[in-house]
């Protein structure tokens, strides 16, 4: 259960950074920095790992 909540939290952070990037692209015509792209990649990988772990725990409990 905690893995699903962690994945939801990571997804919220991912959405916030994407919204920041979209806002910056529209208002200032700038793209994200390399560090922000690396953070987005790490968040996506973290979400996949958290969902995989929660799926495994659900399957093993049933």
Please give a structural write-up.
- The structure is a single chain.
- With 62 residues, this protein is an all-alpha fold.
- It is 87% helix and 0% strand.
- The protein has 2 helices and no strands.
- It has helices at 2-27, 34-61.
- Helix 1 (2-27) runs antiparallel to helix 2 (34-61).
- The model has no long low-confidence stretch (mean pLDDT 94).
Which characteristics define this entry?
2 helices; 62 residues; single chain; elongated; mainly alpha; 87% helix
What's the structural blueprint in terms of helices and strands?
Layout: H1 2-27, H2 34-61
Main beta-sheet strand count, sense and barrel state: none
Q: Point out poorly predicted stretches.
A: none
Total helical elements = 2
Total strands: the figure is 0
Ends apart, CA distance between termini: 14 Å
């Amino acid at each position: 259960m905690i893995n699903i909540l962690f994945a939801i939290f990571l997804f919220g952070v991912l959405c916030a950074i994407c919204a920041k990037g979209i806002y910056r692209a529209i208002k200032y015509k700038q793209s994200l920095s390399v560090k922000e792209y690396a953070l987005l990649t790490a968040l996506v990988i973290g979400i996949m790992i958290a969902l995989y772990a929660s799926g495994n725990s659900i399957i093993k409990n049933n």
